[in-house]
Design a protein that fits this description.
Distance between the termini: 28 Å
GO molecular function: transmembrane transporter activity
Number of strands: 3
Mean pLDDT: 79
Strand order of the largest sheet: 1-2-3
Number of helices: 21
Shape: globular
Radius of gyration: 23 Å
Organism: Dendrobium nobile
Main location: membrane
Largest sheet: 3 strands, parallel
Keywords: Membrane, Transmembrane, Transmembrane helix, Transport
Low-confidence stretches: 239-271, 322-327
Transmembrane segments: 24-51, 63-80, 92-110, 116-138, 150-171, 177-198, 291-314, 334-358, 365-383, 389-412, 424-443, 455-475
Length: 491
């Protein structure tokens, strides 16, 4: 009977080791990747008009520049999630970094519209690896303060949007959109330079039967954090118990080691394809959470990118509504850079507010509250307002929608087991990208066609449906330990 107490899980190890130097390194690395993703998305707020002017594009062709990136992300987020769940978080994000940086840099040299669209689609596929970084960092964070640290991680996205707005303000009037694309691809290269120093997730390693490798990561974490691991053997609830009778000295750190053939068999069994992964996500234990999460992500991403692009449309709309802008003049569009820069700063207080709420009131209540607040701030924008009041309302709306979107990003990987975590989160994000594809083609296009009231009404409907879906989430994950397998989930 006493043997059962001589074991510990990854969750218990993380609780003992705390959040220290090791996690700060993981936070820095994954945070750079998350900021780089934000920069590539924020580019869409600045490059549409100059490209339209240079290549004489129609409004629909300009809108397609944004939509094709989201279409690539739709494909990439599901694909990279399945790949990282099968072959590791590290392999997942290194390939996404290669695709994003390569295609992003080459798109600066695009000779024509078709080439540019193809390369930006590839950038979108690379950006689909964002949930892999999110899941990787999550699996190193102790459960007790996971919400706060995941919110801090999300600050990196906001910093990326602010950096891109600042970069555009400086680069666009002087050097043009090609230089902006080239410079914005540089941060992703940092992921490749320091890739050799990144550890694999010990939780992922346990699910693949590589307990010895997971133990090495945890021992390295213990040394860097100047802490000690619990006494006993590392196990995973992926298996749930030891095979056969084993006696472990109480004072020693032991590793559960299986023979090579068992490791290979378990690894082969745990590799799941695209169809089987989707079936697992829609299994009886997960179907309600998955479907409601998809609705929540669709609404939040539709609203988030809609608000980002709406800032450009409303800043530009006073000149373009009555008559199309035929020539792009950076010096005349200084208000665009100013408004996007100001509203980008709204993400910082939004994340601070979420950090205060998420571990105190829970994920569900925090997200619903922020969505309702965004609904209220959008109401006056259904009618034309002064420039200053419009910017203030967009600032407050983006504050709220950033907080709600980040709350969902924290909740999503927490409800899925390790064996499905990146796939589940990636699939939800992929469904959300459908909202990102539709948003510039429908909502923002309505503003450009002088239908501002209809555009805001559409946002309000989508936000309302999203809030209802979040309110019906089946579980609250605040302070809850992460599961490793589908079988270990509480029904």
């Amino acid at each position: 009977m006493g043997n059962q107490r001589d074991v510990y899980t990854v969750d218990e190890a993380l609780m003992s080791l705390g959040f220290g130097k090791f996690q700060f390194f993981v936070l820095l690395y994954s945070g750079i990747g998350y900021a780089a993703e934000a920069m590539e998305i924020m580019i869409l707020s600045f490059i549409g008009s100059p490209i339209q002017s240079e290549w004489k594009l129609s409004p629909q062709q300009e809108s397609f520049i944004s939509s094709v990136v989201f279409a690539g992300m739709l494909l990439g987020q599901y694909s990279w999630g399945v790949i990282s769940d099968n072959y590791g978080r590290r392999k997942g994000f290194v390939f996404t970094a290669l695709v994003t940086s390569g295609a992003g840099f080459l798109s600066a040299f695009s000779p024509n519209y078709i080439t540019f669209i193809i390369l930006r689609f590839l950038v979108g596929i690379g950006l689909g690896g964002g949930p892999v970084l999110f899941s990787w960092f999550l699996e190193f964070v102790p459960a007790t303060n996971r919400g706060i640290w995941m919110t801090i991680f999300s600050f990196c996205w906001s910093l990326g949007t602010i950096l891109e707005a600042s970069l555009a303000w400086v680069v666009m009037p002087n050097l043009g959109w090609r230089w902006l694309l080239a410079l914005s691809s540089v941060p992703v290269l940092l992921l490749l330079l320091f890739y050799g120093f990144t550890p694999e997730s010990p939780r992922y390693l346990c699910t693949k039967g590589r307990t010895a490798d997971a133990m090495l990561v945890l021992e390295n974490m213990a040394r860097m954090n100047s802490m000690e691991l619990p006494s006993g053997a590392l196990i995973s609830d992926f298996k749930g118990e030891f095979d056969g009778d084993q006696n472990f000295p109480e004072t020693s750190h032991l590793i559960t080691v299986q023979n090579d053939q068992t490791d290979i068999d378990q690894d082969m069994e745990s590799k799941t394809g695209f169809i089987s992964t989707l079936c697992n996500l829609l299994s009886p234990k997960l179907v309600r959470s998955t479907l409601l999460l998809w609705i929540g992500f669709f609404g939040n991403i539709f609203a988030y990118y809609g608000i980002v692009l709406l800032t450009s449309a409303l800043s530009d709309g006073k000149m373009t509504c009555s008559s199309p802008k035929l020539h792009f003049n950076p010096s005349e569009d200084i208000n665009l850079y100013k408004d996007v820069f100001i509203t980008s700063f709204a993400e910082l207080p939004g994340l601070i507010l979420l950090a205060v709420m998420v571990d105190r009131f829970g994920r569900k209540l925090s997200v619903v509250t922020m969505l309702l607040a965004a609904f209220v701030f959008l109401i006056p924008l259904a009618f034309p307002q002064t420039e200053g009041f419009t910017t203030a309302l967009l600032f407050c709306t983006r504050l709220c929608i950033t907080a709600s979107s980040t709350g969902l990003c924290i909740y999503a990987p927490e409800i899925y087991p390790t064996s499905l975590r990146s796939s589940g989160y990636g699939t939800a994000s992929a469904v959300g990208r459908i909202g990102g594809i539709i948003s510039p083609l429908v909502a923002v296009a309505l503003v450009d066609d002088c239908h501002q009231t209809e555009a805001i009404l559409l946002f309000e409907i989508v936000i309302s449906v999203s809030a209802i879906a979040v309110a019906f989430f089946p579980i609250e994950t605040k302070g809850r330990s992460l599961d490793d397998s589908l079988e270990s989930l509480i029904s």
